[in-house]
Amino acid sequence: MLNRILDPAITTVMNTYQRAPIHLQKGKGSYVWDMEGNKYLDFTSGIATCNLGHVPDTVKKALEEQLDMLWHCSNLYHIQVQEKFASFLTEISCMDQVFFCNSGAEANEAAIKLARIYANKFKENVSPVIVTFKQSFHGRTLATLSATGQEKVQKGFEPLMPGFHYLTYNDAQDLKKIETICPIAVMLELVQGEGGVIPANKEWVEELVTICKKNNILLIVDEVQTGMGRTGTMFAYEQYNFEPDIVTLAKGLGSGFPIGAMLAKNPIAKSFVHGTHGSTFGGNPLAASAGLATVQFLTNNIISKNNEMIIYLWDELNHLKKTHPIIKSIQGKGLLIGVVVDRDANQIVEAARKEGVLILTAGQNVVRLLPPLTVTVEEIDQFLNSFNKILYEMGG
User: Fold this and answer.
1) CA–CA separation, 212 vs 135, rounded Å?
2) How does 11-47 read in b/e, with b if 16+ C-beta sit within 10 Å?
3) Which of 37, 49, 161, 268 could form a disulfide with 146 if both were Cys (CB 3.0 to 4.6 A apart)?
4) C-alpha separations of 185 from 119, 154, 373 in Å
């Protein structure tokens, strides 16, 4: 039985992930350990999920307290901690109401459904089209992979769900097509994470916002990866000086505990009434406890203090770029960083793992860095030393 567990060639888990050859067993802060006791500096944060690092004390305490009270109950009853969490999210955002679910894909599904039911109730003779953007990523369910503007994600799952039209990200000319398409909504990421860690151009976003307001088109911002302080502010939209109609959250929302949320302004949110949408586990007492503790700690202890680490890491990466021609550019926002390289980024990821550092890719030639928001100068230096060594050994 143990051989079956340890041998990646012998598995009963479906082969949907290209897993690294390590078995992680525990984590604390910015570090994880495998079953053999090897220690790794984790600059993946569970793909932007463990924003407070692994097993943060404040979230652990909240979960332990909730474990002694109530694990789960139906959403047919009021859940006090869920309602408290929803109120807190509306206080720190520009939104009015919250729907809780279990993941980013489910949050985006909820946003798609809300946009459709709102349009059907309050608009006449509309086409139920939602504009999204090429190279976007909105999830793996049938609806959200249909919304995703990447053929590699969609291949093999045809026929896709109709109702999506893809435009080119950061292309001002393509935005002009929106008024011709007459969509019910536009959905976008303000930093395309899976698509290469590409931030939206501010002038382009301003034009998009203007078009949506002029034509009464809902603007949905997918903050599943960019939210919860990842880009330097609690929400990425704050850096673009506009208020979306709908926002979706997950990943960093619960410190690794599965939770997602779809937030909306009142005029749109009221389209959801009894029986229009639901989730068995969404916002249950355990998930809501983890989420509330996470977001309260981020608000009170992390967001305002994080700029120093962001500036330091970006400055040092730009210094490495001057030294190593392998690096072509540095892009992204906050601690969602893409290092564009002149080769297969997987080579660097594998080399880093051998050095005891975990990093990711975002496409074929982009190394993605997602350190926890609690990262220290010493941990950044450890990463930089390893990264610098790897680049030298690769001849660049």
Assistant:
1) 21
2) eeeeeeeeeeebeeeebebbbbbeeeeeebbbbbbbe
3) 161
4) 9, 21, 32
Share of the chain above pLDDT 90, in %: 90
Please tell me the pTM assigned to this model.
0.94
Our CA angle for 372, 375, 377, nearest 5°, is 155
**Alpha-carbon gap, residue 275 to 196, rounded angstroms:** 38
Type of residue at 349 = V
130-133 sheet: strands from edge to edge: 97-101, 260-264, 246-249, 218-222, 185-188, 130-133, 164-167
* Helix axes 307-323 and 377-393, enclosed angle (nearest 10): 20
- What amino acid is encoded at 85 in this protein? F
Nearest partner of 244 among 194, 165, 187, 328, judged by Cα: 187
User: Can you read off the two tokens belonging to residue 129?
Assistant: 């089209």
Q: Could you report the per-residue pLDDT of 166-210, keeping only the tens digit for each?
A: 999 999 999 999 999 999 999 999 999 998 999 999 999 999 999
Residue 187 to residue 128: CA distance in whole angstroms = 13
Percent of the chain scoring above 70 in pLDDT: 97
Q: 169: closest CA among 222, 118, 127, 123? A: 222
Dump pLDDT digits (tens) for 78-90.
999 999 999 999 9
DSSP class of 94 = S
Residues ≥6 apart with Cβ < 8 Å to 306:
229, 232, 334, 335, 373
B/e letters for 199-209, b = 16+ CB within 10 Å, e = fewer, are bbeeebbeebb
> How large is the greatest C-alpha to C-alpha distance in the chain, in angstroms?
63
Domains of the chain, start order: 2-55+304-393 (3.90.1150.10), 57-301 (3.40.640.10)
Omega of the bond prior to 372 within 30 degrees of 0, cis? Answer: no
Look at the block and give the residue holding tokens 């990421």: 189
